[in-house]
User: What shape does this take?
Amino acid sequence: MAEGLIVLHVAHRSNPYEVVLSPEATLADLQAQLENLTSVPPHMQKLLYKGKKAVSPEDSIHSAGLSNGLKISLLGNPEKAIKGLLEEEKEQKRREEIMKARAAKPRPQVRCDHQMHFTYSTSQTTGSKYWAYKACNKLQVSSYTVTAAPSKTPTRAGSLGPPRQ
Assistant: This one.
């Protein structure tokens, strides 16, 4: 390795990186190299070393107190992670707005009119007689009416018992 170069050991999210810089390099140069290694943009980087925080990107490595073999902790999120968080936040807000809009809508009033038609019938196949009913249902919801088609085959009324054979 060339004489006079400074080797810095940087840890970001438990990943170690080794950065080699000249003593005349600035903190901006260090941040640019760290951006290439970690995808954390310089404006999102926080460098911690010797219990200090790097202040100005224009400071030289030497004047900032960085020396050969120094361990630096890099705090910051990659641009992709930030975009993902922003998208999740946007989706959460959209869902909250939908839920507020649903809560603000009045619930429709439902009324059901059942008309039961009982008939005494004779089975065409067996000739037996039984009571049967057809249901004609009308369901009114707010301002419109939905009519259910009556069943085509008569069904037995449970309280009248099974048909006689």
In short: The longest strand covers residues 110-122. Residues 79-104 form the longest helix (26 residues). The chain has two domains: 6-81, 110-157.
